[in-house]
Amino acid sequence: MKHKILCPVCQVAFLQEGHLKPQEVVICPVCGAKLEVTEVEPEISARKLEQPPQEEIEQRIEAFAKLRGFVFNEDRGMVLEGLMEKKKQFGDFFCPCKFDNIPENICPCLETRKGFVRKEGRCHCGLFNASKG
Ligand SMILES: [Zn+2]
């Protein structure tokens, strides 16, 4: 059975196979966010899994990199610090290298989700890389 779930992080609806139950945790295949199923009737709904911020963003970028086959370089720690700072100041993990704190810039940002890394070899701030080096 396939369920349609709207990701509250990237706002994309995706299909999830299996018999889902409330409190089950799924990973958004579009942005890597960890989601918790809240409702199954009449429709599946999910929210962001409650996690400490550092754990949340680390697991999200790890999951996203794994889904896309991307790697991190030595800037990872610095970008993560920037992301944590944005979370503290502006309430969400907006890209630390972008000026606008808008939903499209929540990490992984929209251009990154849409194939920028494949084209340019890395994302805007260099967190996600198509390959090592
Ligand atoms: Zn998502």
Structure characteristics:
Rubrerythrin, domain 2; 2 domains; binds zinc ion; three-stranded antiparallel beta sheet; two-stranded antiparallel ribbon; 133 residues; alpha+beta
Largest sheet: 3 strands, antiparallel
Hetero groups? zinc ion
Order of helices and strands: EEEEEHHHH
Structure annotation, total helices: 4
Work out the count of structural domains: 2
For this structure, the quaternary state is: single chain
Portion of residues within helices: 25-40%
- Share in β-strands: 15-25%
Name the poorly predicted regions: none
Class by alpha and beta content: alpha+beta
Strand order of the biggest β-sheet: 3-4-5
3D shape: globular
Mean pLDDT: 95
Q: Specify Rg, calculated over alpha carbons.
A: 15 Å
Q: Distance between termini?
A: 42 Å
Pfam families: FeThRed_B, Zn_ribbon_LysW
InterPro entries: FTR_bsu, FTR_bsu_sf, LysW
GO molecular function: oxidoreductase activity, acting on iron-sulfur proteins as donors
Describe this structure in words.
This protein is α+β, with helices and mostly antiparallel strands and 133 residues long. The protein starts with a strand and ends in a 13-residue tail after the last helix. It has helices spanning 53-68, 76-90, 110-113, 116-120, and strands at residues 2-6, 13-17, 25-27, 34-39, 45-48. The longest helix is centred in the middle third of the chain and has 16 residues, at 53-68. Strand 4 (34-39) and strand 5 (45-48) form a beta hairpin. The structure holds zinc ion. Zinc ion binds at residues 7, 9-10, 12, 28, 30-31, 33. Zinc ion (ZN) is lined by residues 7, 9-10, 12, 28, 30-31, 33.
